[in-house]
Amino acid sequence: MDEVVLDLDRIRAVRVLGRGALGTVFLVTVTPGPLLSSPLPPLFALKVFDKRSAAKPQALRRARWELSLLSRLCTCRYRFGDSHHRHHPFLPSLLGSVETADLLAWALPFCSGGDLHALRCSLCPDDEAFSPAAIRFYLSEIVAALSHLHSLRIAYRDLKPENVLLQSSGHITLADFDLSRHLPSQSSNLPSPPRPPLPPIPSDRNRRHRRNLARVFSFGTAEEGFKQKSKSARVSPVSRRRASSSSTLHSGSHGDGERSFSFVGTEEYVAPEVVRGDGHGFAVDWWALGILAYEMAYGRTPFRGRDRKETFRNVLTRPPEFPGRRRTDLTDLIERLLVKDPERRLGFGGGAEEVKAHPFFKGVRWELLPEVSRPPFLVPVVDEEEEVTRASGEGSNVGFDVRDYLKGLHQRQEVSSESLAEF
Ligand SMILES: Nc1ncnc2c1ncn2[C@@H]1O[C@H](COP(=O)(O)OP(=O)(O)OP(=O)(O)O)[C@@H](O)[C@H]1O
Predict the structure, then answer these.
(1) Model pTM?
(2) What molecular function does GO assign, one term (predicted)?
(3) Does 184 fall in a domain?
């Protein structure tokens, strides 16, 4: 499908779906008018990166990278069993994009079910957990999505429940690719001949890593902002969404063959090799899968300490503890994913196939995953027609222009930074 060039004059926002470090995501509709070059659904998500409020030039680079990756995902055909899909069923399909002097925006299908973190909080107010069957369902779909990304030599690097969105069908979509990275050469994801030892980290990398860690350890907290996401600083599972975008763990990065030496990810999901600055590959995604599985099972992440320093110490030194000490296929899977040495971690040598072969996934019909018609949780139906009418109907005062919204936001931010400067 040819990518649609979006016409911002005809796009009306219904509401803000979320704000992250990189952009604001709106639920939008297109007002009636001359046909666009390709049809868009009545409601879709529009992720908008405001170039004016980009704190750092690398933010714009990351936004462009995310858009280019989404565009690339759209060109891949995908086969599940006998059925061919235009898009991977668990990865977002790019519907269109537009760039102006102030904004870079792209359209994605609307995931009306929210995300796994919100689902867990709504279902399990007392930090009770998902059932093993529900965990198996979500992990299987995530593994299938990671498998596809890794086959394209993309390390996702930001797996966490907030980035696992739920489509209206109840199936997942992985979101948020700005931290992902292309790892160009030989992969640690595929069965491969014995690898030469990992190269030592040159001293400038050590210095850079120390600088990154210093930055990480000296974060301040929170700027407010509704539904603003954080990549770190997760004080408690419920409050972590509202923490500051300034507390992201990603900083300058540079690739080196199949490994990347940047410091990225969400504090409680960061793999030991990232904390150590050893350079990392696809195995960081398998580590994060282990943390996510643990969080789904026990309602909390395994290595959270009183502060960031303690969390990282735990990540580096402590084995995961399993309440109740009962051993199951799930605890075995988690233990194998949370092996500190990436080369001994499940998935390092044999990639996604090795993870799929673990006994926890016994009986999963991988090729039929997208056909599962009864996912563990049903997503409430959104009355699309009503949302569209409310946003675009005559005399409607509900819908708004995303450009006006962001301009207002930008002006408010300017005023507050001016007053801070005066102060
Ligand atoms: N397709 C979608 N459908 C529904 N909601 C969405 C969609 N895409 C994003 N959102 C919402 O917007 C929030 C922010 O989106 P996203 O993670 O892509 O932004 P970001 O700026 O890259 O965040 P981060 O700070 O993690 O980099 C998500 O957590 C989710 O709540």
Answers:
(1) 0.81
(2) ATP binding
(3) yes
